[in-house]
């Protein structure tokens, strides 16, 4: 669903400039230095690709203050809402990047990222659009480059077609899948699960949530 344009988007983002990553190519290999505080070089760096309005990434950051997070979002209007939430809350371990996931290997150095979250990505259901799915082989090649050895993707989706095609893509590209779950909310992982805005909506309509952890090998 296309998000409606927000009034004064540029001005509102400029007011939160300290939370935005600009010129990402210039920070390649050095993202931890962008976060406030000391000792960041020893901390893990995680990405959420497609952070939407920010409910998931902000709750994740609250629970894990020792981890540094970059929230990647292509839609500026969605990112604006997430950035403004963060500005009100004042968490110091989240920054935002308005970028296309296909270009992440240009922005992050090999092995710089420890973990990637893919939550309710666009399923691109038509076969001719399969290459646009965020778990298509082309995107997995990008993630493989930026993830450290042993790093992994944690994916959630309500879309069965996307989930099954993702499992096939992981297997074909040599990723190891664990914790495969086709009903997350009635599983052992439900207790620690952080709900996204989409997840609340979809599960409220009776849809089951699929999840998997895919390890870089």
Write the layout of secondary structure elements.
Layout lengths: L8 H7 L29 E5 L5 H9 L4 E5 L3 H14 L4 E4 L6 H4 L5 E7 L17 H10 E11 L2 H13 L3 E6 L15 H8 L5 E6 L2
Parallel strand pairs: 1-2, 1-4, 2-3, 4-5
Antiparallel strand pairs: 5-7, 6-7
Task: Describe the overall structure.
This protein is an alpha/beta fold and 217 residues long. The protein has helices at residues 9-15, 55-63, 76-89, 104-107, 137-146, 160-172, 197-204; strands spanning 45-49, 68-72, 94-97, 113-119, 147-157, 176-181, 210-215. A seven-stranded mixed beta sheet has the order 3-2-1-4-5-7-6, sandwiched between helices. Strand 2 (68-72), helix 3 (76-89) and strand 3 form a beta-alpha-beta unit. The chain is globular. The mean pLDDT is 95.
- Element order, helices and strands? HEHEHEHEHEHEHE
Strands, count: 7
The number of helical segments is 7
Mean pLDDT value: 95
Query: Could you say which structural class the secondary elements and strand pairing correspond to?
Result: alpha/beta
Report the span from N to C terminus. Answer: 34 Å
Largest sheet: 7 strands, mixed
List unreliable stretches of 5+ residues.
none
C-alpha Rg, in Å? Answer: 17 Å
- Helicity range: 25-40%
Shape: globular
List keywords for this structure.
217 residues; alpha/beta; globular; 7 strands; 7 helices; seven-stranded mixed sheet
């Amino acid at each position: 669903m296309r998000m409606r344009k927000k009034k004064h988007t540029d001005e509102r983002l400029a007011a939160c400039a300290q939370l935005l990553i600009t010129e990402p190519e210039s920070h390649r290999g050095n993202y931890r230095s962008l976060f406030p505080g000391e000792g960041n070089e020893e901390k893990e760096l995680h990405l959420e690709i497609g952070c939407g309005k920010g409910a998931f990434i902000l709750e994740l950051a609250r629970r894990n203050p020792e981890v540094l997070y970059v929230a990647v979002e292509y839609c500026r209007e969605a990112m604006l809402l997430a950035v403004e939430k963060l500005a009100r809350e004042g968490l110091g371990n989240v920054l935002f990047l308005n970028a296309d996931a296909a270009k992440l290997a240009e922005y992050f150095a090999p092995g710089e990222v420890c973990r990637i979250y893919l939550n309710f990505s666009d399923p691109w259901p038509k076969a001719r659009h399969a290459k646009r799915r965020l778990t298509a082989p082309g995107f997995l090649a990008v993630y493989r480059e930026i993830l450290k050895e042993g790093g992994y993707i944690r994916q959630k989706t309500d879309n069965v077609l996307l989930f099954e095609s993702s499992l096939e893509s992981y297997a074909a590209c040599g990723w190891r899948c664990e914790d495969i779950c086709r009903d997350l909310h009635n599983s052992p992982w439900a207790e620690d699960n952080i709900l996204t805005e989409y997840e609340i909506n979809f599960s409220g309509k009776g849809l089951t949530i699929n999840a998997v952890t895919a390890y870089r090998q």
